[in-house]
Specification:
This protein is mostly helical. The chain contains six helices and no strands.
């Protein structure tokens, strides 16, 4: 009876995790189209780049949907490697975009659509990231927890782009957006290195970052 209850609870958590990922997918698919139009109208590199970030988030969510539909350590490792690749792509994109904007002194036009969309997206992605982290901890699923960090970066990037758009529109401070981009590069690189360390050690980190205790009866190192 207890085992059955545990299996039912796990099934509910898996369904919740899938709903969170489908919500992320739907939001970002809509966002790619809207951001492409807003970026074209405003000639905004930040908005165009945020559209690319949305594509990366779509890929990461698809990886988690694939992983939650199966099981096995090998499948989890492949899923974590795919998410790490998404972090690398995000870091490369932000580095190139931020450096290019600073070097050429590119000043985008104003975009009310971009401001509204990034503000709403930031709120939505922070909520989704929180839900994924809670569900991933409850399921003890490192892939879902890690993808939650990708969603958190998406929320932070939305906030940075929003700040850049607002400061540019209100005060002409176009440098705010690329400066925030470098902060996110650091975060993305840190997460990539953390995933690589997890895969090298052969075991994912617990959500609080502590190294798990060896199993009972295991010999001391």
């Amino acid at each position: 009876m207890r085992q059955r209850l545990i299996m039912q609870r796990e099934a509910r958590l898996v369904r919740r995790g899938l709903r969170l990922e489908y919500a992320t997918l739907g939001w970002n698919v809509a966002g790619v189209a809207l951001l492409a139009l807003a970026a074209w109208r405003a000639r905004s590199v930040a908005l165009a780049g945020f559209g690319l970030d949305s594509l990366i988030e779509i890929g990461a969510s698809a990886v988690v949907v694939w992983e939650l539909s199966g099981s096995g350590e090998h499948r989890r490792r492949r899923a974590l490697m795919s998410i790490a690749a998404a972090f690398v792509l995000l870091a490369v994109y932000l580095s190139v975009q931020s450096t290019w904007v600073l070097l050429v002194g590119h000043r985008p036009g104003h975009s009310i659509t971009g401001i509204c969309w990034t503000a709403i997206t930031a709120a939505v992605m922070f909520s989704l990231a929180y839900g994924k982290r809670r569900t991933g901890i409850a399921l003890d699923n490192p892939v879902l927890r890690t993808e939650g960090r990708v969603t958190l970066i998406d929320a932070l990037l939305a906030t940075a782009v929003l700040a850049g758009l607002v400061l540019n529109a209100a005060l002409g401070w176009w440098q705010a957006d690329p400066a925030a981009g470098y902060v996110l590069v650091y975060y993305a690189v840190r997460e990539t290195l953390a995933i690589r360390a997890d895969l090298t050690a052969g075991r994912p980190r617990p959500p609080d970052g502590r190294v798990p205790d060896p199993p009972t009866g295991a010999p001391d190192a």
